[in-house]
Amino acid sequence: MSRPAAPCLPVVGSDTRVPLVDGRTVTYANLDCAASAPALRAVADRVAEVLPLYASVHRGAGYLSQVSTALYEASRRTIGGFVGAREEDVTIITRNTTDSLNLLAGCVPTGPDGEPGRVLVLDVEHHANLLPWQRSDGGATVVVGRESVAATLDALRTELAAAPHALVAITGASNVTGESLPLADVVRIAHDAGARVAVDGAQLVPHRPFSLAATGVDYVSFSGHKTYAPFGAGALVGRRDWLDVGRPYLAGGGAVRQVGIDDVAWAPAPARHEAGSPNVVGAVALAAACDALAALPDGALERHEAVLRERLVTGLEGVPGVEIVRAWADSVDPVAVVTFSVVGHDPGLVAAYLSAEHGIGVRDGRFCAHPLLARLGYDAGAVRASVGVGTTLDEVDRLVGALAAYVAHGPTARYEVVDGCWSVVDDPRPLPDVTGLTGLVGTAAAALGAAGSACGPAPAATGPAQHADAVELARV
Ligand SMILES: Cc1ncc(COP(=O)(O)O)c(C=O)c1O
């Protein structure tokens, strides 16, 4: 009998019931927190509290405009403080991690040789921490990860010695495996070679306490929607000098000191990169999440995750044919993001089955990390389960039990691939009774497939001609 573990913090929707294909309803098990985490109750309460105070910010003369401006700027301080910003660091409110990294990519300065600064990344990165550098002026050197942490660090060192780089941009925790390189080592190696370090904190910041000041990392980016504040804000925090003179991220009002017909004097950061009306509510929500996470007792978050991850990995390893994806054999202290493959079975079908027959939400595909999945031999994708502060052991046990049943007996319902997406044939599940929703869940999934999400299987396994193959594989 499973033993439910108490959530670390209450989240909105933890008791939401969802329909199954057999007509029953169950409490939704959200094991897709790495993609987007539910709002903390404290975040939702804070948003409800400040909404009546909301008004235009920065240039409004009204009383509520001044209140909103104060709320926005106080949120900025809280968000920076949460990631250990140094006195001289700047906190820029962005939309998400992708936005933050694209912004930073426009601020990498030219080197002493007058050449645009080059950026070094690993092939384990999420596309958000790869593509902005590849198309930046200086371009990117992509280092292929090695089997061990030590060998990968050696490869970084060798590459940095071979050619000057302005920046090492590295994941704080992989969105595929939850693993990471030891940041202290990366910082030392990069700084010794004269390069700065930017950490993609999308999967680190929600899962572990992190401090720029304590680690010596130069920049960190993260997303509100992964940090229990799904209100459209994220952040880039770090050294002011590059951000004060770098290319303004967006051209527009609020980012300037003075504009003439033929010239413009840009403001320094953060205003320089925040043109347009800022997302006040998003920033307030993210700050509320930061406050709630920071108020947890020392070690509580790590303990909660360690228990859940251990249960997840042990459970998955006990299911015949399940293989856990690892980037490094010897990495330590991964966050609770676990990707696995059910050998011989299509990950899309497994994920559809978990949802339709068990009310469990996971993610399948290549997780916007195509180079890593290709190198590790998972071009056809895999399945990812990820937990958060609201997850219980019971939910993890439900996943393991459902997978064991799948491997033993296969799915009960009938599934088909529609526009590249696995769905239940004649899916009877209704959408919730919310204004504007009509049709079936399957219809929504199919629409996504039609939009051509590139995080699914590699092209060779998709497209109309391959659907039959995918179905065959799934039926094996
Ligand atoms: C490690 C990592 N980096 C970057 C991103 C991009 O985050 P966002 O979609 O919030 O911009 C993600 C999203 O899954 C991620 O997991």
From TrEMBL:
Every copy of the Aminotransferase class V domain together lies at 30-399
Question: Which InterPro entries did the record assign?
Answer: Aminotrans_V_dom, Aminotrans_V_PyrdxlP_BS, PyrdxlP-dep_Trfase, PyrdxlP-dep_Trfase_major, PyrdxlP-dep_Trfase_small
Note whether Cell cycle occurs among the keywords: no
Q: Which reaction(s) are listed as its catalytic activity?
A: (sulfur carrier)-H + L-cysteine = (sulfur carrier)-SH + L-alanine
Tell me the domain of life. Answer: Bacteria
- Identify which cofactors the protein needs according to its UniProt entry: pyridoxal 5'-phosphate
Q: Of which family is this protein a member?
A: Belongs to the class-V pyridoxal-phosphate-dependent aminotransferase family. Csd subfamily.
Q: What is this protein called?
A: Aminotransferase class V-fold PLP-dependent enzyme
